Amino acid sequence: MTTTPADLTDLRPRRQILDRAFRGTTLLAGALILIILVLIAYTVTNKSLPVFRSEGFEFFTQRRWAPNNEIYGALSFIYGTAITALLAVAISVPVSLGIALFTTQVAPLRMKKWLVSLTDLVAVVPSVVFGLWGIIFLAPKLLGVYKNVSGWFHGWPILGDIFGRTGAGRTFMTAGLILSVMITPIITSISREVIETCPQADRDGALALGATRWEMITGAVLPHSMSGIVGAVMLGLGRAMGETIAVALVIGSSPNITANLFASGDSLPSVIAFQWGEATTEIKRSALIAMGLTLFLITIVINLLATAVVNRATKRVQGT
Amino acid sequence: MAVVTSNLQPRTQQLAADLTGISGRRRTKNRVMTVLMALCVIIVGAALLLVLTTVFAKGWSIVSGQFPAWFTKDIQLAPRRPGPGMKAAIIGTAVITAMATLIAVPLGILGAVYLNEYGRTRLFARIMRFFANVMAGVPSIVMGLFIYVFWVVPRGINGLNGFSGALALACLMLPIVVRSSEEMLRLVPQNLRDASYALGGSTSRTTVRVVLPTAAPGIISGCLLAVARAAGETAPLIFTIGAAKRTNWNVLSGTNTSLSMQIYGNAKESFLTAQQRAWGAALTLILLAFAATLVARLVAARLSRTR
Amino acid sequence: MNTVRRRLAIAGIISLSLVAAACGSDDNSSSATAAPTTAGEAAATTAAAPTDTAASTDVDFSALKGSLIASGATFPKGFYDDAIATLAGIASGLTVEYGGGGSGKGRSDLQEQVVDFAGTDGVVKDADKAAYKGGEFVYVPTVIAPITMSYNLPGVDKLQLSPKSISAIFQLEVTKWNDPIIAADNPGVTLPATDIVVARRADGSGTTENFSKFLDAAYGPNATPPGTWKLGGASELEWPDGTQAGDGNSGVAQIISSTEGAIGYVDLSDAKANNLTFASVMNKAGKYIEPTLDATTAAAEGTKINDDLTFFLGWADGDAAYPIAAQTWIIAYTKQADPAKAEAIRGFLTYLLTDAQKTASDIDYAPLPAELQTKALANIAKIGA
C-alpha cells in the first residue's frame, strides 16, 4: 500500500518546513515511547540482577517460593499468570466480539448508544472494586458452584483433574472470570470501532448477493476487521496478564502448579503487590522485581508467537 | 430478488436481504447467531448489574448521608473516626488523571501517526509497535516501581507528588493509546489520503486535516479506555504520590491521594466507618468517571465530521 | 532516502536514553536536601530547639510547625492515625502523614530518603545498614499490642491453646477441632468435630513475622525443649496447601468471621472491630493468658531491651505476660539537614511517647512501660542533635 505524496517542490518553503517539523515531531514521539520502554526494561533488569546472581537461570524453573530459606522460584507464578490470562481471554473474546457485532450489526440506532455506555460503564469500574466484589460476592457464591461441578466430574479422566476438589472460592477460575469481565471493555470497544469502519459497500454487496446477516458478518465484516480485532485482543491479553490488585485479591495466594482450575494459586503481579511491603532485604526486593522482568519476557514471547500466528491467519482470511 | 441499497441511507440502518429464498439451515444459523450475540450483551450486562448493585448498596448511604460534605470536606485523619468527606481524593484523582492524560494522549497519538503514516513497515516502526504491545502487559505495580526508582528517589522527599503519579499512570496509558490509535488510523481508507495528495496536500496536512478527523471517534474511544484505566489504578500511585488527606490542587508539588487509593486503603481497615468510606469512594469514582466518558463522547460526536 | 541520517539519529537517541538511564538510577547526592516544605514562617520557632532529654517532655505541641511525610508498618497505623488526628487539633501548623504500606516499604523509603521517618515492626540487619543514605538512625519504640488467636466456633466461648496446638493447627497437622492435641489444652470442654480452616495473611506482614517468631521461639527446632514448628519466623511463610489467605488483618478477620471452624492470627484492634472471639494462649510460665493490654505491657516488662532499644516481645518471661505480643519502632536519621524539620520530628515523636500513650488503650493498643518510654524519649533527643 505505498503511495507517493505529491511532489513537495511545488509547495512554498514554509509549508515544507511545517511538513518536516510535523514529521520530526511524530518521529520524536515514537522515539520517546521507545525510550520509555527501553528505560523500563533497563531499570527492571538492573534491579533484578542480585537474585539472578544467586539463583541463576533456576529462578524461572524453580517451583518453590521460600525467601526465608533463600529459595526464589517463579514457576508457580508464571503458571498462575498464564492460566488466568488464558481463561480470561478464552471467555472474553467470544463475548466481546458478540457484543461488538450486536452493537454494530443488529441493534437499532437508539439501543446502540446504550450499548456503548454499557461498555464504558464496565470500563470505569476500578480494578480494586472488581477485586473487592470478587471477595465479597463472587468467591463465596462460586464456592458452591465449584463444589457441584467438581462433584459431577469426580473420577473422570481429564475433566476430573481440571474441575477438581476445592476448598475455597478464591481460585484460578474465579480470577479468570473476574479478569474476563475486566478486559471485555477493551476488546469490545476497539473491535466495535474497527467493525464500524467496514465499508458499507462491502456489507451491502454481501447482502445483495443473498447472504444472511450472519453470513455477511463472516464474509465481509470480519475479514475486514480481523487485524484490528487481533490488536484489540492483544491489548486485552496484556491487561489480563498485568492486572495486579483484582487478581491478587481473588486468586488465593497459594503458589501452586496444578491442572485443577478450582484450586488456589498465585500470579506474578499479585506476589509483587503483596510481598513488596515487607520485602526488607535487597535480595527479596530484587526477587520481586525479577518477577516483573519475568512477566516482561513472557509478554515478549507471547507477542512474538501471536504476531506469527496472526500473520498466517490474516493472510488466509483476507486472501492477501 | 435482492434489495438495492442507496449510499445516502444512514449506515446504521440494517437492510436485510429478502430471506425467503434461503434454506432453513442458513436461516436457523442466522437466528441462532443473533441470539448468541444478544446473549453476550446480557451476560456482561448482568455482571455489570451485580457489581454496581454491590457498590450502590454499600456506598450510597455514606455519599447521600454526608452530602454535600462528602464532596467539600477533606478526608478524616483517622479512619476509625467517623465524619466526612472525600474531597482530597476527588480533586487528587481529577488532577492526576488529567495530567497523565495530558502526557500520554498527545504523545500516544503522535506516536501512532508516526507508526501508521510514516514508519509503517520500517524496522524502527516494527520494533516500536512490537514493544508497545509488550508494554501493555507490564503490571501497574511495575510501572509504579519504575517511576519510584527512576524519578522519585533521585528527588528524595520532593519526589512524592501528583506529577510522579501522573508519570506512572501515563506509562500505563501509552500502550493503549498508541495501539488503539494506530488501528484506527490504519482503517482510514487509502483513497481518502490519495484524494488529498492529489489535491496537492502534503503528508502532514493530509494527516491533520483528513486522516485524524476520520479516525477521531475510534481514537477517542481508545483514549477513554486508557483514561478510565488510569483513574481506577491503585498500585502505581502507592509508590509515587504519598498519602495526603488534605486537598492538594498542585500536581507538581506536595503529596496527594486518589479515590482508588482511598478505596483500597479503607477497604483494608476493619472499622465500619472505613468500610463505608471505601464503598462511598468507589461509587463516587464510578459515577464521576462515567460522567466524564459521557461528556467526552458528546464532545466527540459534535466535533466529528464524517459521521 | 536519508537512511544513513535517520539511522544516525536513532543511534543518537538510543545512546542518549542509555545515558539518561544511567543518570536516572544513580544515587544523586542532592537527594538529601529537604527543601523547605515547612511553612515560610517556621523560622520564628527555631530559636529554642530542645536538644536535651529533660526539656522534651515540656514540648509545646501547639507550636509545632511543618509538614512530615512517613510510611511503614501497618500494625501501628491505627495508633499513629489517631495521634495525628488528635494532634491536628492542637498543632494547627503541623501536617503529618503516615502512609502505611508495610515495614519493607517504610525501610526502603527511609533508605532512599523519600520520607522523614519510617515505621517498622522488625529490626534492620547490620549488613543492610550501610545502604541507608542518611547515615545513622535511631530506633524509637512507640507502642505494643497483642496478636490474638481468633476463631469461629459456635458454642465454644472459651478456648485455650498451647504453642504445641497452635503449631499443629497452622501446619495442618490436625484437621478437626476435637483432635486430642487441642482437647488436651481444654479439659472439660466439649469441642465439636468441625473441620479446622486456617486463615493466614496473603500479604507479607509484620504480624506474621511476630506470630511465627513466637512459634519458633516456643516450639521451633531451637526451643527448649525442641518442637515441631518447621515454618520458621518471618514476614512471609511457605504455608502448606489448604490454608486460606486474606489481605491484611481485616482480610483474615473477614475469613474467620464468615467461615465456621476458622482460626487465624489477628491483631487485637481488628479482632475487636470484627467481633471475633479469641483464645487464651499458654505463656512461658505455663499459664493461659488472654490477649489483654495489661498482659501485653507485662510482657514488655519481662523482656530484655537492647541498648539501641530493639527487643522481641514474643514468648516473654513473666506469669502475667501474654506470649504473642508485637512491638514496633519508628526509625529516623540522627543527622537532619533542616533544624526546623528535625524539631517537628522530635515534637511529633515526643507526642507519641507522652500524650498519645495515655489514650492508646482506648483504641486497643498498649502503652509502653514507663521505663521504656523514658529510654525512647532519650533516643528522640538524638534526632537532629
Would you mind describing this structure in some detail?
The complex is a heterotrimer of chains A (320), B (307) and C (385). Chain A is an all-alpha fold and 320 residues long. Chain A has twelve helices and no strands. Chain B is built from eleven helices and no strands. Chain C has 385 residues and is an alpha/beta fold. In chain C, strand 6, helix 8 and strand 7 form a beta-alpha-beta unit. The longest helix of chain C is centred in the first third of the chain and has 22 residues, at 3-24. Chains A and B meet through helix 1, helix 3, helix 4, helix 5 and helix 7 of A and helix 1, helix 3, helix 4, helix 5 and helix 6 of B.
> Which H/E pattern describes the elements of chain A?
HHHHHHHHHHHH
Largest interface: A-B, 118 and 127 residues
Please tell me the overall pLDDT of chain C. Answer: 84
Distance from N terminus to C terminus of chain C (CA atoms, Å) equals 67 Å
Give the helix level of chain A as a range of percent. over 70%
Order of helix and strand elements from N to C terminus of chain C: HHEHEHEHEEHHEHEHEHEEEHEHHH
Low-confidence stretches of chain C: 18-56
Instruction: Give the biggest beta sheet of chain C.
Output: 9 strands, mixed
Give the N-terminus to C-terminus distance of chain A in angstroms: 12 Å
The tally of strands of chain A reads 0
Multimeric state of these chains?
Answer: heterotrimer
Decide which structural class fits the backbone of chain A: mainly alpha
Number of helices of chain C: 14
Tell me the helix content of chain C: 25-40%
Walk me through the topology.
The complex is a heterotrimer of chains A (320), B (307) and C (385).
Chain A lengths: L12 H43 L2 H4 L13 H32 L2 H16 L2 H26 L6 H4 L9 H25 L3 H9 L4 H30 L2 H6 L17 H9 L5 H37 L2
Helix pairs in contact in A: 1-12, 3-7, 3-9, 4-7, 5-7, 7-9, 8-9, 9-12, 11-12
Chain B lengths: L23 H42 L3 H4 L14 H33 L3 H13 L4 H16 L6 H25 L3 H9 L4 H29 L3 H4 L20 H9 L4 H32 L4
Helix pairs in contact in B: 1-11, 3-6, 3-8, 3-10, 4-6, 5-6, 6-8, 7-8, 8-11, 10-11
Chain C lengths: L2 H22 L28 H4 L9 E7 L4 H14 L3 E8 L1 H9 L5 E4 L5 H4 L7 E15 L8 E2 L1 H8 L9 H6 L11 E5 L4 H14 L24 E3 L1 H11 L3 E6 H6 L3 E2 L1 E3 L5 E2 L3 H9 L23 E9 L5 H15 L1 H5 L10 H12 L4
Helix pairs in contact in C: 12-14
